[in-house]
Amino acid sequence: MQVVSEAFLSLGVNDPSEVSDNQLILLDIDLDKKESWFELALGKNISDARAELFVLLKGISTKVNQDKIIKNYKALQKHRASERTLEKFPKPELVMTEVKTEATLGDVTIYCDGGCSPNPGESGSGVAVYRGDKVSELWYGLYEPMGTNNTAELNALYQSLLLAQQESEAGNKVVIKCDSMYSINCIKIWAVSWEKNGWRKKGGEIKNLEIIQRSYALYNQLKSKVELSHIKAHIGLEGNELADRMTVYAREQKDAAFVRYADVIDVEEILSMRAG
Q1: 170 CB-side CA count, 13 A
Q2: How many domains does the structure of the chain reveal?
Q3: Do residues 53 and 152 share a domain?
Q4: Are 138 and 210 within one domain?
Q5: Residue 24 shares a structural domain with residue 129
Q6: What is the value of pTM for the model shown?
Q7: 14/150 same-domain check
Q8: Are 45 and 144 in the same domain?
Q9: How high is the mean pLDDT in each 10-residue block of the chain (276 residues)?
Q10: How far does Cα 272 stand from its chain's mean position?
Q11: Are the beta carbons of 25 and 118 closer than 8 angstroms?
Q12: 209 with 145, same domain?
């Protein structure tokens, strides 16, 4: 973590009037408080990733160039995380074997969720896997220092589809329950016409195109075997609430990989965590 001091802020701006909107977001400062941002920022604790981005954006005046830097930084973070994951966590083959063994116990329901605070800001994704009526696995990660609610939701849905693919291959009936109507519409409805139009739409670019294309392709492979349905968020549904807590846990752990929750799953204790 980085404590925001005057010395630190001077690394990111030559003069307080030069601060950009993206830098304010990194400091978790509301844009409508831009006039007093310097005083509001002092003493804050921000992640190392946000601190690095704040400095990297120094002197970059156009939003287009700032967004390029942020995008490249995210790619570097994901690359670093993937290398760390190879050392810290089991290889995918081992995870798949474990999942297939557990899959013989019953049909599977996968709850997925994504969250961001503020929006845009630090984001993370979470998944809760149920076998029968009992939670079996929790997953979290895909942390981004400058993500959005929509990217986090799409990431969670894509990971759920990957898990569903393994379960389906094991002969299990799978249902994915997602509280993001945006994500569901992207891959079940809108992507159909976007693909026909060469992945273009009227009115401008398709945001989050890469993850939408991957999710759409995978969903088309699975839709005859896997059910994808919408649920309302925060209505007390245990699976949805557990996935929500994993999004917050992902932001706290700042893990760019998507990893399985390693602790004992104490449902009551996890639900007592901060909600997203």
Answers
A1: 22
A2: 2
A3: no
A4: yes
A5: no
A6: 0.68
A7: no
A8: no
A9: 87 89 88 88 86 89 86 77 47 32 64 94 96 94 95 97 94 95 97 93 90 96 95 94 97 93 93 90
A10: 21
A11: yes
A12: yes
Beta strand 121-131 with 134-147 is antiparallel
Strands 2-3, 174-178: parallel, antiparallel or unpaired by DSSP?
Answer: unpaired
Whether residue 83 lies inside any domain: the answer is no
Q: What is the pLDDT of residues 107-121, one digit of tens each?
A: 999 999 999 999 999
Q: Which two tokens stand for residue 58?
A: 């120094």
pLDDT digits (tens, 9 = 90+) for 151-184: 999 999 999 999 999 999 989 999 999 999 999 9
- CA atoms of 187 and 10, how far apart (whole Å): 44
The verdict on 57 and 115 lying in the same domain is no
Q: What is the CATH number of the domain that holds 137?
A: 3.30.420.10
The dihedrals phi and psi of 39, each to the nearest 5 degrees, come to -70, -35
139, amino acid identity: W
**DSSP summary character for residue 204:** B
| pLDDT score recorded for residue 177 | 97
Structure token digits, residue 205: 């670019």
Amino acid occupying residue 196: K
Say which residues have a Cβ less than 8 Å from residue 221's Cβ, sequence separation at least 6: 165
Domain range for 224: 89-271
Q: 129 and 201 share a domain?
A: yes
